[in-house]
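DM from R.C. (forwarded with permission)

"hey, sorry to bug you on a friday — could you get me a structure for this? deadline for the figure draft is monday and I only need the backbone to look sensible"
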Amino acid sequence: MPKPRAIVFDLLTALLDSWSVWDAAAGTQEDGRRWRARYLELTYGCGAYRPYEVLVAEAAHDAGLPPSAPAALHAGWDGLQPWPEVPAVLRDLRARGLLLGVATNCSVELGRRAAARCGVPFDAVITSEEAGFYKPQPEPYRAVLAALGVEPVDAIFVAGSSADVPGAAGVGMAVVWHNRVGLPARPGPAPLREARTLDAALEGLP
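My reply, with the result:
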């Protein structure tokens, strides 16, 4: 593959530990994971953008959680923390002259707040609200590439969930998967690499 000009990230799983925030809002890890799984089903199924907060509330209801859970998630959003190695990896990529972008499945407000938790500025942050579609539809990936001014062959996408692998590959990007919590793979193309840490996922790439 050619030397990349840009690295594009999934935000809420590849860079940030959003799992802990969902679990805290739900009350237990078991409830948080069930809620999050239902939310992902709704997101992948709807395609065209529906308000993120509406999907979160629907998923909470379907998972048997109280109406207070979505409000607790919103209130705890600024408690999002990057995975331990993330700030150093982002600083290193920036020092090497690479453009840094984010494509994330959430609202503009929450996407901006979450991106700010990473500690390093991004050249482009595209939310599903702005793109009009949720990943793994192609529109969010294409929107961030356009915002960065690069072609798909000039970018590497760092997936955080398995759906991002075929989604980003489908628009022509090389994909690595930072599979922090050991999610099962979905059918489709395999990533160039799968690893439990961000630095390992990117290690040795051009």
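R.C.: lifesaver. The first strand starts at residue 6 and ends at 9.
me: no worries. Strands lie at 6-9, 99-104, 124-127, 155-159, 174-178, 193-195.
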